[in-house]
Amino acid sequence: MATVTREKFDNIIEIKNVTKVFDGITAVDNVNLAVRRGEFVTLLGPSGCGKTTLLRMIAGFEMPTSGTILLEKQDVTTVPPHLRPINTVFQKYALFPHLNVFKNIAFGLKLKKIPTGEVDKKGRPVYRKFTKDEIAEKVERVLKLVNLEAYGYRDITGLSGGQQQRVAIARAIVCEPKVLLLDEPLGALDLKMRKEMQSELAAMHRNIGITFIYVTHDQEEALTMSDKVVVMTDGAVQQYGTPKKIYDEPANAFVADFIGESNILSGIMKEDFLVEFCGVQFKCLDKGFARDEKVDLVVRPEDIAISAKKGALGGEVVSTVFKGTYYEMEIVAGDYQFTVQNTTEYGVGSKVWLTIEPDGIHIMKKLKTVNSFVGEVLSENTVEICGGEFEFENTDGFERGDEVRVLVPFDKVELTDDEDDGVIGANVTQTLYKGSYYQVQVYTDDDQDFLVDTVDEWDIGDRVGIKINPKDLTVTRKAKTDNAETDNASQLDNMPEGEEESDE
Ligand code: ATP
What we know:
This protein is of the alpha+beta class. Helices cover 17% and strands 39% of the residues.
């Protein structure tokens, strides 16, 4: 067994049940997260998922609505930013244009007061400023770290975007913070410069050994640079783990879709290690599901073997594109369309067989299996959910004012182009192709979400109406203990997965 030092596994930051609500909008929703000292942790997710808000709360620029933030076990939830040993690098460099590189970096050092270790007559600690030589030495050291050794006396305005961002990083690390926060620091750079800076940043992290918390919406950037990735959506953490774990074993369909190319399908767990999809049973490595439990599953395009010889699943190639080192083919097999990557090309129209090894199939629990809301009966045949009055078949004799639970299967929700044709209006926030249909997530104006299985393609941001046939609402009496608004999967335990991998 590896010997593990306490230092290595020491959590420098702990985020406990942190929620941030802005004017009724929940930007960060009950996040729990522990970051270990010296790690490079990336917050990854689509625009608006709450990454920046979470980072700003760690920095102290925002205060959580509820929850606590601990830094080295001390509660810093309400401590102002300048009193936290944390520094932030933003996408916009915010350098002083009238100062040269050296002076930009030295600026914070000149202001810094350092304890001498002595006390005055009244017992108060005595502080001093850094000397000129100390400042010069520190600035030279960080200039070297960011590969700008010869640039100290250059004007800021004459530097490229990448060089300016390096100065911003140097300025942030020169005061030796315990944690460096980086908010999309490469966002303003062109692709080539981004790539260069990605490897430089990873090297810098290794060299200076301080904890980095990095925000990006670019999954490749997250997977290549980080020790751990936090995948977020809708203010909540969907998965926290090593890049490998997140890629190979996504916790749910959202993570699988967001991280790289994937085939996401619905399947049924027949028994431990056996899953059925596309009408065929496949061996897999997953167990612990109920018999016949509906699951999501992901198969990466590179994990599907394709051959003219008989295999598990027959299909036909409908498109093929050369991607530099391999061919990417779309293959229709039964009701599903698979994306397959292979170094051998099979032309459009080819009849082929697909085979998937057990370790190429990853089973995920369905986040939700049915839309579920708490509602109130408004009349003999109408019930209020999500701010709308929906008709239902009142076979149980519910009365006006009764609190009820209302279930609606995903494929029984109808989305309408014209919002006015629906009972309530909503915005499309996510769409996921599941091989033979789309699973669309819509947010109602009442801040609730519906999942909708549909063959129609919708775009994120589309405004839609929601209609439900009265016979498709299942209305039951709300149990006394039933307090949850929906049956959304509760937040995962956000201690990172795959910890054993970091113990190397
Ligand atoms: P992006 O990548 O686009 O910056 P993000 O994942 O960093 O997105 P946040 O900036 O944290 O997301 O925003 C999360 C949600 O909170 C969004 O709906 C945003 O509009 C809202 N929000 C953030 N800051 C504020 C604010 N100061 N006032 C009101 N709403 C805010």
